Amino acid sequence: MNSISIWIRRISVLIVIGLFLVVTCAGQSYPRDTSYTAQSAFQKYKRQFPTIQLAKPSEPGRVRVLKDIPYSWTGNRFLTLDIFSIAEAEPKRFPMIFMIHGGGWKSGHKNMLYPLASDLAQAGYRTCVVEYRLSPESKYPAALKDIAMAMQWVVAHADTLAVDTRQMVLLGCSSGAQLATLLGVSSLWEVPKVQAIVNLDGILAFHHPESQEGIAAAQWLGGTYEEVPDRWEEASPLHHADENDPPILFVHSQYPRFQAGRDDMMTKLQNEQIKVYEWPNSPHAFWLFDPWFAPTVAYIDVFLARVLADQVD
């Protein structure tokens, strides 16, 4: 039996166990905000950008998707993750990209990142799209603990998943980018070491001259800046950054508010650790739409190919 067949059989066992656990716990209710979806974002932005289209995976048939694998029990329900891999993969270990969706820390769903996860899998990565608790269900720092737990789960199953734990990446979008960057530069949570961070339009500081964070941030952080200033500072990646952090790719929209703290953070890091791309005329959630989707995938792939090669060598 070849390595690919063994990998498929092992993963099948995980899926069966996962389905049993999810079905067993079906019916567990929890507060959720479903206002932010790819379709609602499309309806919002198409008035300003009438030619945009929702991005779709370029060759979905080439990608194998393992959905809703439970990785943690919250006390009320299981949290799940999805893993994307190239269907005709060679029998080897692959870099892993952990992907964190956005939605203002209160809404959004991991399925919003399926096109991005699929195309990055086609580029030669394993991708893991993580479900985490949002502010209607649990406040800061629950989301960070959840993502850390998902990463630990993948590392524990690295052999089965054919993951190279020397080549791991955190990628986030909007509020998910804030989470990914914070986990990548902070030592507050037990996160496996990552070799790179990809920040797609995520803030680096909550209380900052460039920041416009308000109600959504306060809901997640459990109070306004005036009420819980230490928490606002602790949740800001800027205040944890130093020259020992992994390389970071920033891809930004045209809106300065989503770059809050970036320039200050760049001064703390060595120039060779940073790569920045900015879309001059784009929606905030550019990674969801054509014509920005494919170039964004290319930017990420080029950046990671260089960084991960350097790290392993």
TrEMBL record:
Domain of life: Bacteria
InterPro entries assigned: AB_hydrolase_fold, BD-FAE-like_dom, GDXG_lipolytic_enzyme
Keyword Ribonucleoprotein: no
Pfam families reported for this sequence: BD-FAE
SUPFAM superfamilies hit by this protein: alpha/beta-Hydrolases
Keyword terms: Hydrolase
Gene Ontology MF: a single term: hydrolase activity
Domain BD-FAE-like: 81-254
Name under which the protein is recorded: Alpha/beta hydrolase
Source organism per UniProt: Reichenbachiella carrageenanivorans
